[in-house]
Structures are given as structure tokens and as C-alpha cells.
Amino acid sequence: MLKMKHLVYIGNRLAQKHKTETTIDTLGKQLEGLGFKVSYASSYKHIGLRFIDMLFTVYKHRSTVDYVLIDTYSTLNFYYAYYVAKLCRVFNLKYIPILHGGNLPKRLKQSSKRSRKLFGKAYFNIAPSQYLYSSFKEEGYTNLVYIPNAIVIENYKFEKRPINSTVKLLWVRSFSKIYNPKLAVTIIKALKDKGIKAALCMVGPDNDGSLLETKDFAKQLGVDVEFTGLLSKANWHKKAQDYNIFINTTSIDNTPVSVIEAMALGLPVISTNVGGMPFLIENGKDGFLVTPNNSKAFVDVILKLVKGEIDTENIVENARLKVDTFSWDVIKQKWLSVLK
What we know:
Blueprint: E1 6-10, H1 23-33, E2 37-41, H2 47-60, E3 67-72, H3 77-90, E4 95-99, H4 104-110, H5 112-120, E5 125-127, H6 130-138, E6 144-146, E7 166-172, H7 181-193, E8 197-203, H8 210-221, E9 226-229, H9 233-240, E10 245-248, H10 257-265, E11 269-272, H11 277-280, E12 288-290, H12 295-306, H13 312-323, H14 328-338
Parallel strand pairs: 1-2, 1-3, 3-4, 5-6, 7-8, 7-10, 8-9, 10-11, 11-12
């Protein structure tokens, strides 16, 4: 009988603390479904306790773990990844950073020595986007594997939505300055100023105080915006049935799962052209890429959709075909190959 592989998964497991579900929540469950034993750290809300728990969990399982997976970001969380990896090297454990965040290429340059130790000595580095894969490769890293974020494609009901007299915009992200949520409010204000009947729903929890700032900004501009707070995937997918355009206003990005999900659901996506987005969306073929922090650029595309100047059906069909390749049935084979 084959021995069950034991994984320790390090990341911010905070979905039960009213935070957005992240890779540790989704991929962890998917790997369990493949028969892996997965131990997690950490779900502590306090960042200091979370960091201690991460280190302790690696130490606790040092004699039984086969691989340590580490969700790795570019900001403060870069340092927990660095020290967890350092502890793994002390015990000769194979660790695998999973690369997240559109600013990681900048981090490679800002913290080059730490990056060389963290990523250069990893068993593999998993890049969920071609953007990060190519960025790391340009810096000389060779221990790279491209494995996209996976979705269970059969759970996504594809529906074509008419865009006619009413523009109904959907925005799904945690409220954080790097995702530029106030731009969404500026867009709907600009549409209304042009006499376009429009609505905006913004879905997601607060991350850094941006939710309150965005609400106040909407009041200042005198526009009604629906703020739902955090919704489960099932609930925001249900909410999406009433909307006909998905907007992604971010200033920094990788390949966000919410955009992949919107494409799977049949929503035409308009996104800022930053980070990994041009690796996910081909402008004019399966979505639209516009200049960052530019409400007029968004409005121009929306008006073309309203006037029927763009074959929206073709756009959303192409988008669905693209995200079919993100199906877990396809992606799981890549993970099994890495964790063999």
C-alpha cells in the first residue's frame, strides 16, 4: 500500500475570520480530495500569533512532512515565507513557494539576497500565471513550474447577458488600496453623467479601511452603490446573474481568481492592463484591457458594448473557452506531477 503523502500548507487561512477565501482554502481542499494529508497554518487573526504558529507547525511536523507549501506574497507576508523557508532548510525539508501578488517581480529586485535564498533553494516555485513565471525566469530562476489557479468548471453556469438600456456593473475583490475600489465609483458616476442608466454592486470584505473610504466617496459623488460585504462564492455567483459587466479596477495584479470566475460565468470583463492581466485576457478577443486609473477608458468600452459596436457574445464565448483550461480536472495532473 502506498504511503499517504503529508503536506504542510503555510498561508493566511482567514476565510473563517470574515476574509476572502484564498488559495490555501481552495487548493488545500482540492489536494485533500486527491488523498494528501494536509496540515495547515495559520488561522490566527493576529499576525504575530499567525507567524509563530506557522513556524511551530513546520517544526511539529518536521519528521513526517513530505513537502511544505508556502503561499508567498510581495509585501509583509514575504517575510513569513522567508523565515518559514529558512526553518525548512534547517531540517532539510522540501518546500514549495506558491507565488502570488503582482508586485513579486519588484520584490525580487528590492530584496534580491533574501529572494535568492527563499526562491533559489526551493524544491520548486509554483507560478500560477505566465506573468510571474516569465518574471522569475528573467531573473535567472529555473526551478519554476507553471500551474494556474484552478476552478471546478462544472460549478460555473455560463450565461450570456444582454447589455442594452441598463448597465449593471459587478466588482468583486477585497477592499484594498492596491485594487483601487474608488475607481469603480468614478466609473458609474461618469456613466450617469452621460445619461446612461447604470448600477454598481461591489462585493468583498474590508482589508485596509478602503471599504469605508469607498462608501464615503460614493456619498460625495451622490451615486448609489450596493456594498454587500463578504459573500461566499455561491452567493456572489448568484448575485452575478443580475449583472452584465464585470470590472477589475486594480493598480497591481497577478491573475485574480475572481476575474477567472467572471469569465466562466459569462460576464464580459473589463480590466486595467497591469501585472498578469495581459497574460490572462487578450484585449478585444476574450475581454478588454484599459489604461490603469482611467475611468474614461472603462466608460469608452462600456459605451461600445451598450451600442452593440462589439460582438459581446463572441467575447464571452472565447473567455469561457479559455478558462475551461483552468479546470481542476486538468490542473490536478500538474500538481500530482510536482508532488509525486
